[in-house]
Design goal:
Elements (H helix, E strand, L loop, with lengths): L1 H26 L8 H20 L3 H24 L1
Helix pairs in contact: 1-2, 2-3
Length: about 80
């Protein structure tokens, strides 16, 4: 069981780093809000944090990370239609 906790905590940290890195790259103008890299980083971050918060039974965090993943998917669809 300790091994599973290690992996779930790792997913949480990786998800947080994905969010921070994508936001940093956005505000420093290295990425655009319409780039797939930005959406993918947010989607991966949301999925990792969703996994972590489900394991930790933190339903408000599950909700917000599920919404974040959905928004990232919507962003990819909208940007694809505009290109």
């Amino acid at each position: 069981m300790a091994d599973l906790k290690f992996w779930m905590d790792g997913f949480g940290w990786l998800g947080a780093l994905c969010f921070l890195a994508s936001y940093y790259l956005l505000v420093t103008k290295k990425w655009k809000s319409t780039s797939y890299r930005y959406h993918i980083a947010n989607l991966i971050g949301a999925v990792f944090l969703l996994t972590n918060t489900l394991y930790d039974v933190s339903y408000p965090s599950v909700f917000i990370n599920g919404c974040w993943a959905g928004i990232a998917l919507i962003g990819m669809v909208v940007d694809r239609k505009q290109k």
